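step 4 of 6: structure.
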Amino acid sequence: MKPDLSTNIGGIRMKNPVMTASGTFGYGPEYADLVDINQLGAIVVKGICLHPTKGNELPRTTEVASGLLNAIGLPGPGVDGFVREYMPFLRTYDTPVVVNIWGKTIEEYAEVAARFDSVPGIAGLEVNVSCPNIKEGSAVFGTDIKMFERVVKAIRSATRLPLIPKLAPNVSDIAEYARCAEACGADAISLINSFPSLAVNLDTRRPILANKTGGLSGPAIKPIALRLVWLAAQAVEIPVVAMGGISCARDALEFLLVGASAVAVGTASFVYPDTALRVAAGIGDFLEKEGIASLSDWVGSIKA
Amino acid sequence: MKPDLSTNIGGIRMKNPVMTASGTFGYGPEYADLVDINQLGAIVVKGICLHPTKGNELPRTTEVASGLLNAIGLPGPGVDGFVREYMPFLRTYDTPVVVNIWGKTIEEYAEVAARFDSVPGIAGLEVNVSCPNIKEGSAVFGTDIKMFERVVKAIRSATRLPLIPKLAPNVSDIAEYARCAEACGADAISLINSFPSLAVNLDTRRPILANKTGGLSGPAIKPIALRLVWLAAQAVEIPVVAMGGISCARDALEFLLVGASAVAVGTASFVYPDTALRVAAGIGDFLEKEGIASLSDWVGSIKA
Amino acid sequence: MQLEQATVIAHAPIQGSYNLLQMRAPGVAARVQPGQFIHVKVPYLEECILRRPFSIFRADGESLSILYKDVGKGTRTLQYLEPGESLSILGPLGHGFPEVSAGHFPVLIAGGYGMAALYLVAQRSPVKGVAFFGGRSAQDILCVPEFEALGWKVLVTTEDGSLGQRGLVTDALDAWWAREGSAHSPELFVCGPGGMLKAAARRAEERNCPAWTSVDNNMGCGVGACLTCVLKVKDGESWTWARACREGPVFNSRDILWEELA
Amino acid sequence: MQLEQATVIAHAPIQGSYNLLQMRAPGVAARVQPGQFIHVKVPYLEECILRRPFSIFRADGESLSILYKDVGKGTRTLQYLEPGESLSILGPLGHGFPEVSAGHFPVLIAGGYGMAALYLVAQRSPVKGVAFFGGRSAQDILCVPEFEALGWKVLVTTEDGSLGQRGLVTDALDAWWAREGSAHSPELFVCGPGGMLKAAARRAEERNCPAWTSVDNNMGCGVGACLTCVLKVKDGESWTWARACREGPVFNSRDILWEELA
Ligand SMILES: Cc1cc2nc3c(=O)[nH]c(=O)nc-3n(C[C@H](O)[C@H](O)[C@H](O)COP(=O)(O)OP(=O)(O)OC[C@H]3O[C@@H](n4cnc5c(N)ncnc54)[C@H](O)[C@@H]3O)c2cc1C
Ligand SMILES: Cc1cc2nc3c(=O)[nH]c(=O)nc-3n(C[C@H](O)[C@H](O)[C@H](O)COP(=O)(O)OP(=O)(O)OC[C@H]3O[C@@H](n4cnc5c(N)ncnc54)[C@H](O)[C@@H]3O)c2cc1C
Ligand SMILES: Cc1cc2nc3c(=O)[nH]c(=O)nc-3n(C[C@H](O)[C@H](O)[C@H](O)COP(=O)(O)O)c2cc1C
Ligand SMILES: Cc1cc2nc3c(=O)[nH]c(=O)nc-3n(C[C@H](O)[C@H](O)[C@H](O)COP(=O)(O)O)c2cc1C
Ligand code: FES
Ligand code: FES
């Protein structure tokens, strides 16, 4: 019997637990020729803020051992541009659309969230508090528990949509942030964002990326992500969406095993655009072979 | 003209800036057939605590993408065993011996440091506050700034030897720890220790390592380490010893460029035992080709 | 655009550090437009996770080929691939070269792998024109007989004079233009290093002639999702980003903010 | 022990998923003791950073060979290596098998690559004895003619009966022991999976005969530095760790805490 792969992430009903990770699948059309969007658990679009933004200068990415460093800098069409240009396309699919949002200030975060509240066809909001390039004053939202609390609370009061704060990985105590999100009324949490990193060029003696530092993603960060997801999942009751180096079904099954209720495929989509679909199919095959009737029986079933 | 590669790490004079990383070069004899210890900048031995210890059960290591996960658990002969068994051998070399120390309590740290203070032939102490398996109460020395301060202060009062706290990588603000070490009288700092991580086995549904979590090392962590070293070097005046994924001279040159005064080769020694020597030679060749007369002209010369 | 498992038909060094890789890839080969590229996952190179982009050199029926230079890890490792082995390719990608405009005379300008990238233009163009190939030395000049066989006149320049005229490709172009340009109403098709693109674009602007330039910005995804490969293009009085992999790699030279190109 | 760049002389599948890799490595080959191993960096496999340990199968003059089974990424990738290519090896490593004690009759017990690991014992032993080879099926039984050519009697058991006697290696051993053991004063040399080692060790203990067992703990550095490969050995009333790569991989069976072996 085919196992039941459906999952519910804080009110977002998904036919399978595999999403795309924000920023790695564009807004949908980019991969639509290659990937049947209807077969995704959910589609998470590139980060959107209030107004159109240009992002960073080049180079924006560089390859490192088993990973990718990026500092794209969140270019995007802004709320209105996104809704106008991409929502008509996205609404043609039978797949939940999760919008990843960010802002430069707490007010901006709240306003973006409020604006999406009334847009038809949006299933939930993922909040990027962990982009290395956004700060308020000297504090970074994702690595300062007080700022984190303020931003999540502000967004919570601005929207009725399912709310998924995306945690920064570079904190000592991830459980603290997970619990804080839960206490502030988040419906789920997601982690990890790419890991703050640096690459330099010996010939120019400069950082390779125009932005200097960037975020590390891909297989290199998988063991780090797996530990953080495990700790976060133990800390809260709300569902956890896991990402970080997932490139095959077995990787995803590991994150589900340690307690994630859904996963997202990021950098791997750049390499094999059909990764998310293969991951979803592979999870089904594995559970079937193991005689596990439902995804929820596997989630968090680690013996440790 | 051959460039001057000598460097001084808080009173430890080294003929070149390349050390071995603690725990990856044994106590010396293991690699003595393969590597001329006299050509190392310094030899840093495996972590030592007060009494003999057995470490963790197996498996203790597992391979991951471009990296190694380890939870050896600090087995060792204890202070007396180390001094008796290995110091006679180590004293035959013209290379500074740095002892990496750890303890279960602040008192133990201080006592280990005090004991080494009077042992001839020891050039300095590196303090492992960042081993994922040591805690006092619920606080981890390396990721709680108050505990960190207490332990560094306690050791500082217990020894006159050059003191090098080794920072934990899993903190949000590495500069804070670097500055704290400097303020407590450390002569240098080193970073990064392996990064807390997890690997699981889908068949057994258990963590692969007996200790559950372990530390990630090797090329996978290099971009993370490079950023942290850059931030730490900007925060303090005392020298920085850098490590994390160094496997060739170019890797080392990157860490020196962002401000490290010396580097350590870790996991790479397991693969090519002569890595540290090749790194030292390669640094010399590079500086010579670039017409840079002295290592110190390269250290921290990043334009950013 | 599709993801296809291609099978190597033939693979050999051709000259200098250039290699010719021919593969069976019926899905991709059927739809190739001149100037498009494929995005290749280099087998056995797992620690380098990204694909590598290569212009489609030839596409005949069910097969296609690329001509690539050994410049780094990916292109070095690619060389181990043997006939019969398979590799994952994504393609055909991007927007290629248009056909030569009515009444215009096609002028190809190429350096490095640009000679490969322009072959399909030369082959499929109803009008055969002139091609300027430039490089450091004879080793860097590719495919001259192939272009001649298609009925193109090929003018070679090398910096060291080891083949053709000594100098830069633009020297030969300028001489030709002075001699024959006015009689011809040239339209430029350019693929080569940044400097060559800029020099050609400048001439096109000065002489008000159409020019199509293929940029080789570093790429991530190759399909428009990652925003790695962008370049600045004019947008009224301002500018906007265009993606080399999606809106390009071939752009109308007039649209590019040349002074901003890396 | 030395780090050497070896050159592949010959490399081919031999049977089932086993491959024979012969290389020129004069430095390492000259000093091999039976039961020692080399630590191999698999070329082209950069994302797997560790070396892989393989018992030295044969060592003749300037060359040595290993016999390895395809079980994972490293051993799969190793197969791409062709004659003339080079690879980095570290060896000879560890403590191997001693010579058979005076007055004793050597009994070899092997499963899997253990047959390769015991070949040098068989070759260099002044006394030729009996060898028990066990595996799941005929595919898993290696080198029988080679051992016979050296003057050893080889008794084969397979679990599926496809070669030799049906059953476990210990069945054949027990039968032989009952029949001829008392006449012989056997000394065991064992290399195979954990279960086989334990079964042999138990028999040695019961019958108070010397036994040398080669363990195959996972390895990191291979030289004693990383403490990955340890196993518990007796230390008076207590125990201590011994490193399979340094104090082993061959241990006196009496020293090992068998109930603790993974
Ligand atoms: C649209 C397009 C078409 C291309 N067509 C061809 C072709 O037909 N034949 C061919 O030989 N090459 C072509 N290239 C360039 C080719 O993609 C690079 O040479 C290749 O990706 C290098 O990979 P590597 O792993 O060998 O080198 P790396 O180890 O990744 O890099 C080696 C060096 O090359 C530089 N480099 C890497 N990628 C690029 C790039 N995209 N452009 C310029 N420099 C780069 C790096 O900065 C580095 O200095 C094309 C590039 C683009 C964008
Ligand atoms: C001293 C010693 C001598 C050896 N001699 C030989 C030999 O002569 N011929 C031979 O074919 N093999 C030998 N082995 C085993 C060989 O080292 C492993 O098969 C090899 O390392 C697997 O590498 P891989 O990358 O292909 O597999 P991986 O992808 O690393 O692992 C594949 C599977 O094999 C398991 N595995 C990995 N290493 C070992 C190991 N050391 N022991 C048992 N299981 C392991 C893994 O847990 C996994 O299930 C020896 C091992 C040791 C310790
Ligand atoms: C090119 C790129 C762009 C990204 N953009 C965003 C973004 O806009 N918002 C966000 O929250 N995360 C962004 N991320 C982070 C990913 O969503 C994901 O958290 C991270 O890459 C780890 O997953 P992976 O290893 O599977 O890629 C981006 C990652 C990459 C590689
Ligand atoms: C097997 C192993 C054992 C280690 N043991 C110690 C130790 O005893 N004390 C310590 O401070 N660091 C220890 N480390 C951490 C290293 O010294 C180093 O900080 C880390 O591995 C990062 O460097 P690398 O990527 O070059 O290996 C150990 C690392 C490994 C891989
Ligand atoms: S390469 Fe990703 S957008 Fe062009
Ligand atoms: S493998 Fe490293 S100590 Fe044995």
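step 5 of 6: annotate
 - The CA atoms of residues 51 and 65 of chain C lie 17 Å apart.
 - Chain C is about 20% helix and 35% strand.
step 6 of 6: archive
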